[in-house]
Design goal:
Structural class: alpha+beta
Helix content: 10-25%
Radius of gyration: 27 Å
Number of strands: 21
Largest sheet: 6 strands, mixed
Bound molecules: heme C, copper (II) ion
Strand order of the largest sheet: 13-12-15-19-17-18
Distance between the termini: 97 Å
CATH class of the largest domain: Mainly Alpha
Number of helices: 10
């Protein structure tokens, strides 16, 4: 089967070899006009000096370059096959590609299932001619890239995280009960047992990736967020040690970008990212055993700049793996909670226009190169809890009663954060979320390192409105990382009393 495919492509390569020499014969595009048209491509492609890979590959010198060959870019299978077949871009080919990349790559490879990640097309013929002519102005017989692609063909290193060549024994799952977890939107956690009853289970999780516009502050600043199930952060998953997580990840055809999932609770294949990378219209099912207890982040991790780009567009969340016997204090006594709140800090890097106003965009990836430029400065435009400034304040505040114990699960997939409950404490804190270790006690502020989730248990003793924030007060007050907990109950004068307030006493 594989051999047949290769032979077929070999014939194609021969045909293309001829096409290269005759290419460009009737290309009559206007490069200057093409430069204007290319603005539409800039959402995904960079070109010229200093250009990098974006959503799509760097297009500098694409005319005359082997198809699917730009270094460091991860092409879909269609362009990879075209590359193996020896295809080299000329103006006419780009002209046809732009009419419908999908149809083009299918007819080019002779494979009607071949895929491409480029979902964009240009209807007008003249536009396609002109933009192809513009690309040709960057033409250079790129010997180096030819050679590189040849080397890749002969040495063909497996990409990082690829497990397709690894052999494995089948797993017997016959003894396991399957349950579906009903996911809920943050800051809530799905219904779960604190102490597991029965044997380990297979817990089914459905994640559908949604690229959607969301407002992130009270001024109405909008981004096209990248989300698991439509919320920033994605829903919290809760399982017990020894359970299997059976996660179905769907990237609907209506999306523009490639996505995957890396779960820090999972073992192997880049936490799953190596075997869940999906083009729009694809789906993956990943089953992994929860062998480590604790709170762990999960996030999208496509590759290169795309990883921080996706994470800073909201594609992250938390999976909590509880010990089967529940949480324990430092002496091994049972700890439990009445409520769980799930707070995820999110940093955004929204680009600004020449007047300093935040820019807005229409589809996922459109802000890619500008966002990356801001991101590289390491100064976020927003640092928020649960997707937007104010998503956990006022009407949407977290609530509790005096005497209730709340477990706050707090994560940041990208930067360090330092949760603090003003007027309260962390009675028991697992800073790293690692429940197998004894908790720290009586903390004022705890530290959650970037790329992890922590957990803090607190029993409320006084009523009132508490502020729960990142105690980098600039990030909390100026950038948005603050929440409220509204606590009902009776005030305890033995803990605190306003003895006097008024003019200075004589
Ligand atoms: C929405 C994002 C997006 C837009 C807009 C877009 N492209 Fe692409 N383009 C891609 C992606 C993604 C790929 C990689 C395709 C793959 O791997 O299948 C690609 C691949 C290409 C390639 C093949 C490059 C190679 O190295 O083989 C060419 C040529 C190309 N695009 C030209 C254009 C031009 C010209 C425009 C504007 C008229 C444009 N694209 C607009 C996303 C886009
Ligand atoms: Cu993603």
């Amino acid at each position: 089967m594989r051999q047949m495919k290769q032979r077929h492509l070999g014939v194609l390569a021969f045909a293309i070899g001829i096409a290269v020499f005759s290419g460009g014969a009737h290309a009559a595009g206007d490069a200057a006009n093409g430069e204007q048209i290319f603005k539409k491509c800039r959402a995904c492609h960079q070109i010229g000096e200093g250009a990098r890979n974006g959503v799509g590959p760097n297009l500098t010198g694409v005319i005359g370059r082997p198809m699917g060959s730009f270094d460091g870019y991860k092409y879909a299978d269609g362009l990879k096959a075209a590359n193996e077949a020896g295809g080299v871009w000329d103006e006419d080919m780009v002209f046809e590609w732009l009419a419908s990349p999908k149809d083009y790559i299918r007819s080019f490879t002779g494979n009607d299932k071949a895929k491409t990640k480029m979902t964009f097309s240009l209807k007008k013929e003249q536009d396609r001619r002109d933009v192809a002519a513009y690309l040709a102005t960057f033409y250079k017989a790129d010997e180096a890239s030819m050679q590189k692609s040849e080397e890749r063909m002969t040495h063909g290193n497996a990409p990082v995280g690829d497990v397709s060549d690894v052999s494995a024994a089948e797993v017997d799952l016959s003894g396991y009960e399957r349950v579906k977890q009903e996911l809920v939107a943050p800051p809530f956690a799905p219904k779960h047992e604190q102490v597991a009853t029965g044997k380990p289970k297979i817990v089914e999780i459905d994640f559908t990736i949604q690229e959607k516009k969301i407002k992130i502050d009270p001024d109405g600043t909008e981004i096209v967020a990248l989300t698991f199930n439509g919320s920033v952060p994605g829903p919290m998953i809760v399982v017990h040690e020894g359970d299997y997580v059976d996660l179905t990840l769907t990237n609907p055809a209506t999306n523009v970008m490639e996505h995957n999932i890396d779960l820090h609770a999972a073992t192997g294949a880049l936490g799953g990212a190596g075997i869940t990378t999906l083009l729009p219209g694809e789906q993956a099912q990943l089953r992994f055993k929860a062998t480590k207890v604790g709170t762990f982040i999960y996030h999208c991790a496509p590759e290169g700049s795309m990883t921080p780009y996706h994470v800073t567009h909201g594609m992250n969340g938390v999976i909590m793996v509880l010990p089967r016997e529940g949480l324990k204090d430092e002496k091994g006594n049972q700890l439990s909670y009445d409520k769980l709140y799930y707070v995820v800090e999110q940093d955004y890097y929204v680009p600004r226009d020449e007047n300093g106003n935040f820019k807005s965009y229409n589809f996922a990836g459109e802000d890619f190169s500008e966002w990356v430029d801001v991101m590289r400065g390491l100064i976020p435009s927003h640092v928020v809890f649960n997707g937007a400034v104010g998503s956990l304040t006022g009407e949407k505040a977290m609530t509790a009663n005096v005497g209730e114990t709340v477990l706050f699960v707090h994560s940041q997939a990208n930067r360090d954060t330092r949760p603090h409950l003003i007027g309260g404490h962390g009675d028991y804190v697992w800073e790293e979320g690692a429940f197998a270790n004894p908790p720290m006690k009586d903390l004022e502020t705890w530290f959650v390192r970037g790329g992890s989730a922590g957990a803090a248990l607190y029993t409320f003793k006084q009523p009132g409105v508490y502020v729960y924030l990142n105690h980098n007060l600039i990030e909390a007050v100026e950038l948005g990382a603050a929440a409220h907990v509204v606590v009902d109950g009776k005030w305890d004068n033995s803990l605190m009393e306003q003895v006097y307030h008024g003019p200075v006493r004589k």
